[in-house]
Amino acid sequence: MRGTPAGIRLIEQKPMNTQFMNLNIRYDLPKETWEYVIPEIFLEVEGWLGYREEIPYWFSFREEEKYVSASLEPNGLFFYGLMEDDEWERWKLQFKQAATAKLKFQVGEIELGEV
Q1: Residue 41 exposed, middle or buried by CB count within 10 Å (0-12, 13-18, 19+)
Q2: What gap in Å lies between CA 18 and CA 33, rounded to an integer?
Q3: Distance CA 61, CA 50 (A)
Q4: Are 99 and 107 in contact (CB under 8 A)?
Q5: How far apart are CA 77 and CA 107, in angstroms?
Q6: What is the mean pLDDT of the chain?
Q7: Strand ranges (DSSP E) for the chain?
Q8: Structure pTM?
Q9: Pairwise CA distance, residues 78 & 21, whole Å
């Protein structure tokens, strides 16, 4: 019977789930904010890759793998992705904190009563 070699610990992989959040970063912010400040926030958050067809992506451009993408909707900046739940919660917090610091207003999810 074969086992795990001595000294090697197996890491339990948690399932990845579809994730989403809608932030109070609205389309009607000044043009300068969208051109300069928002891209700075994107750069600060873990996993930033860049834009593909004008859509920002983190971690992967492939939606079968761990990824996050964003789109600007009438009610705010919407994020959609595939990630483990615990990691998603940490990533969301990192994004909200970076956005709050750069935008100088409390960034959060309206649906959760954060703002």
Answers
A1: buried
A2: 29
A3: 9
A4: yes
A5: 10
A6: 92
A7: 16-23, 48-52, 55-58, 67-73, 76-84
A8: 0.86
A9: 6
